[in-house]
């Protein structure tokens, strides 16, 4: 018994004397672990740029078209998050992204005045339109947009499908209700005819199609989805329905120089021309009009 106790004491003493005994191995830098593999040269670390963009630029495929060009030119990988303008700005205010690309001038100017964004740079526009069933059950075709929405409210029969997501399109819809002399909250709670999709433009169009109802859309997303839905343009574009997209680098960007590179890229003459040509062959219409340098 005594010999056993002596052995245990000796083992304990050795454990205390040996360096590192009883300790966890020192932590290694995660990047070093992932970049160094035995037998292979270290992988080149690739810089990343995080962008929050409005859904219409994503749903139309414009980002998929431009992304590889930017990555090749600047040696960076883009991580693109798409949501409504409100959500994109929320991510920007939290510092989750480096650049936002949105379409609501009033909120953009407030965003910059509050110190979150450095500059507002309009680079393209298209138009909002009202779409609906080809038979136009409420007889809204070619009416003024605010008058058309007032007629829908007074009828309260045919569904109107709203984005309902604080997007730039949703903000435009609210402005139209105000122009029609109606309080938005009153409209929103007035009955089952008013439907809040709470999602992007593409799914909202699909919902309007299924419900045989009307919706406010940007023309680019509608043209991209036109082959999949049985909806017509009921109220066409006009200057009052202009929809301007702006790129805003964030004050809290992880790499301010790369964030500014995105502004330079989208507003360059070469890319402005590409934006203007995008969709013309595939859909037979210009989806976006380049506008850098215009006061929009």
Element order, helices and strands?
HHEHHEHEHEHEHHEHEHEEHHHE
Q: CATH homologous superfamily of the largest domain - what is it?
A: Periplasmic binding protein-like II
The CATH architecture classification of the largest domain is: 3-Layer(aba) Sandwich
**SS elements, strand count:** 10
Q: Write down the domain tally.
A: 2
Measure the end-to-end span.
Answer: 92 Å
What integer value in Å does the Rg equal?
27 Å
From the spread of the alpha carbons, the general shape counts as globular
Uncertain stretches: 1-37, 40-44
Structural class: alpha/beta
CATH structural fold name of the largest domain: D-Maltodextrin-Binding Protein, domain 2
Mean pLDDT: 86
The top level CATH class name of the largest domain: Alpha Beta
How many helices in DSSP terms? 14
Helical proportion, percent range = 40-55%
Strand content: 15-25%
Largest sheet: 10 strands, mixed
What does this structure look like?
44% of the residues lie in helices and 19% in strands. It has two domains: 47-126 and 244-290, D-Maltodextrin-Binding Protein, domain 2 (3-Layer(aba) Sandwich), CATH 3.40.190; 127-241, Periplasmic binding protein-like II (D-Maltodextrin-Binding Protein, domain 2). It has helices at 2-17, 30-35, 55-59, 62-74, 85-94, 105-113, 145-155, 168-179, 184-188, 201-211, 219-225, 256-267, 269-277, 280-283; strands at 47-54, 76-83, 99-102, 121-132, 160-162, 194-196, 214-218, 232-235, 242-249, 289-290. The longest helix is centred in the N-terminal third of the chain and has 16 residues, at 2-17. Strands 1, 2, 3, 4, 5, 6, 7, 8, 9 and 10 form a ten-stranded mixed beta sheet that branches. The protein is built from 14 helices and ten strands. It is globular, with a radius of gyration of 27 Å. The protein is α/β, with parallel strands linked by helices and 296 residues long. Mean pLDDT is 86; it is low at 1-37 and 40-44. 36% of the residues are buried. Helix 7 (145-155) packs across helix 8 (168-179).
């Amino acid at each position: 018994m005594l010999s056993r106790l002596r052995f245990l004491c000796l083992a304990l003493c050795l454990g205390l004397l040996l360096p590192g005994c009883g300790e966890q191995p020192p932590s290694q830098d995660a990047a070093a672990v992932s970049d160094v593999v035995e037998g292979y040269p270290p992988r080149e670390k690739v810089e990343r740029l995080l962008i929050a963009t409005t859904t219409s630029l994503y749903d139309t495929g414009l980002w998929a078209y431009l992304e590889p060009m930017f990555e090749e030119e600047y040696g960076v990988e883009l991580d693109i998050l798409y949501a409504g303008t409100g959500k994109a700005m929320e991510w920007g205010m939290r510092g989750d992204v480096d650049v936002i690309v949105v379409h609501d001038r009033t909120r953009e100017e407030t965003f910059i005045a509050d110190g979150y964004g450095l500059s507002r740079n309009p680079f393209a526009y298209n138009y909002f339109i009202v779409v609906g069933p080809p038979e136009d059950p409420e007889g809204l075709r070619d009416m003024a947009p605010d008058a058309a929405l007032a007629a829908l409210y007074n009828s309260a029969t045919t569904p109107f499908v709203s984005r309902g997501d604080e997007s730039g399109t949703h903000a435009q819809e609210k402005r139209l209700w105000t122009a029609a002399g109606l309080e938005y909250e009153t409209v929103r709670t007035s009955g089952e005819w008013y439907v809040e999709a709470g999602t992007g433009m593409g799914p909202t169009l699909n919902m309007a199609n299924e419900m045989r109802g009307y919706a406010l859309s940007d023309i680019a997303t509608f043209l991209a989805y036109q082959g999949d839905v049985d909806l017509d343009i009921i109220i066409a574009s006009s200057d009052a329905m202009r929809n301007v997209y702006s790129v805003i680098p964030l004050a809290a960007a992880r790499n301010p120089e790369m964030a500014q590179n995105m502004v330079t890229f989208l507003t360059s003459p070469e890319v402005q021309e590409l934006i203007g040509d995008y969709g013309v062959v595939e859909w037979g219409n210009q989806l976006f009009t380049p506008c850098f340098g215009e006061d929009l």
